[in-house]
Amino acid sequence: MEARGDAAPSVDLAEVAVADLQADVGELIFLCRDAEAKLAEAAVDLRAAALHERTRRLLLGEVESARRRYRDTSERLLSLRERAERGPPTRTLVDELAAAKASAADLLRAEQALTAALLGAADWQSPSFLHSLAPAAGRQAGRIQAHWNDYKRDRHLDADAYERRYVDELVDGPEGLRALLTSCGMGAFTTVLSFLLLERKLEGPVLAGRGLYHESRFLLERALPGRIRFVDERETGALLRAIDALRPSAVFLDSLSNTTWLPVPELEAVIERLRRTNTYLVVDNTGLSVACQPFALAGGSVRLLVFESLLKYAQLGLDRANAGVVIAGADDAEFLSRYREHLGTNVADVAVHALPRPDRRVLERRLARLQRNALYLAGRLADRAFASRAVVYPGLPSHPCAGAAARLRFRGGCLSIVLRRPDCGLEGERALVEAAVVEAAKRGVGLLAGSSFGFDTTRIYLTAAGGGCGEPFVRVAAGTEHRLALDPLAEALAAAVEAVAP
């Protein structure tokens, strides 16, 4: 057991916790500097823009005020990091750092929304490309082209820079790849599906993993009645045999499934089987993000479309704006861009402003923490599991895809708790969610009941609770908690599981 107070014998854990918090503070400093750089650029644009003078003064004043706040926050964070470096690593120091970090993170999350609105405040959704007296294009005057970027539902300059940086920073693969931002992850999928359907790319049979995200599966089943076959992607041999037998028009897979058993398909084997065929491989990469690089595996010899929800890991826990992205080769990207335009699935300008700029180092550090915490929680729960429940995480040796997962730098930030009591309906799962929050409160550790994943604070959620939404299960989405917070969190989850399913 972990002792309490400054005299704790587990000095090593305190040192790890302090190092965790130092890294977390570094992430917040990155967000401050990113936002301040965007605001500095906006100030230059606003001074040159054709605006009414009162509007210019208002916006420049707000920009300067926001920059001061970011500078002040950044200075406080730097001081906090120095305090951590001075030590010594006691529980008191950990608590002090954790409270200050949580306060700064909450402040920056609010600032991110204010900054996003401020960056686009002078701009228009339908900017002018010619004018007789004064333009109506805000900061983007002089850069608007008729029938190209003069209507932001179609495309806009706000997304261009982010899309280019996304590919440069986060995508490995051949030259010529493009990123296309969308309104959300499902907006990315519907854009891909509409392109394939309406361009008659799905005339033959279609293959999909059984663990496909339930909303994607819903659309595929209704778009292709009787022509889609689902295969357990945990069985690589069965999946490859199905490809050989069906010669499908397309294969749809999640790189890490967001379903009960969290399958991790052998993408490299699938790609090898599809080389130099006309089959499209569509990969939902939300579960693995930058840790999975399908284009690097494919090397340009597979017709590959990859998409991701940017509401999850890419937002660094901010949960500030809905957005998604599709990655494709140049030819397919051109078609996808047109379908994005006609479907109205383009990302909003304010959402782009709310996204942190893509940075591989920052994102990979965060993923490593989420993985560490997910693996720790899963391991602690699995050690206490009985026949009435199962703990599922790809990083555990017991997982059917442990071999495939072991070859990944990141094995996901979520685990499943499966109650094997079919006679109880969903009451057991609902009771587990409620009991876990109560147990966490008793131990003074943060735990939220809520959807999605990739946050600072661990969440627990009954996934797919609605009818027709797949097999329900309790998902624990690990947060970025420091090391000393993990033991009481694991104890709270274990106590809740044992109370509900003894």
Task: Work out the strand percent.
Answer: 5-15%
- What would CATH call the architecture of the largest domain? 3-Layer(aba) Sandwich
Shape, per Cα inertia axes: globular
In sequence order, what are the helices and strands, one letter per element? HHHHEHEHEHEHEHEEHHHEHEHEEEH
Which CATH class of the largest domain is shown?
Alpha Beta
Number of domains: 3
What is CATH's topology name of the largest domain? Answer: Aspartate Aminotransferase, domain 2
Q: Could you tell me the mean pLDDT?
A: 94
What separation lies between the terminal Cα atoms? 23 Å
Flag low-confidence runs.
Answer: 1-11
Q: For the CA atoms, what is the radius of gyration?
A: 24 Å
Coarse structural class: alpha/beta
Question: Can you tell me the CATH superfamily of the largest domain?
Answer: Type I PLP-dependent aspartate aminotransferase-like (Major domain)
Largest sheet descriptor: 7 strands, mixed
Could you list some keywords that capture this structure?
globular; Aspartate Aminotransferase, domain 2; alpha/beta; Aspartate Aminotransferase, domain 1; seven-stranded mixed sheet; five-stranded mixed sheet; 502 residues
Secondary structure topology:
Elements: H1 11-48, H2 53-86, H3 91-119, H4 157-170, E1 178-182, H5 185-198, E2 206-209, H6 214-223, E3 228-231, H7 236-246, E4 250-254, H8 267-274, E5 280-284, H9 294-298, E6 303-309, E7 324-328, H10 330-343, H11 349-354, H12 360-383, E8 389-392, H13 402-406, E9 414-419, H14 427-442, E10 448-449, E11 459-463, E12 473-477, H15 483-500
Parallel strand pairs: 2-3, 2-4, 4-5, 5-6, 10-11
Antiparallel strand pairs: 1-7, 6-7, 8-9, 9-12, 11-12
Helix pairs in contact: 1-2, 1-3, 1-12, 2-3, 5-6, 5-10, 7-8, 12-15, 14-15
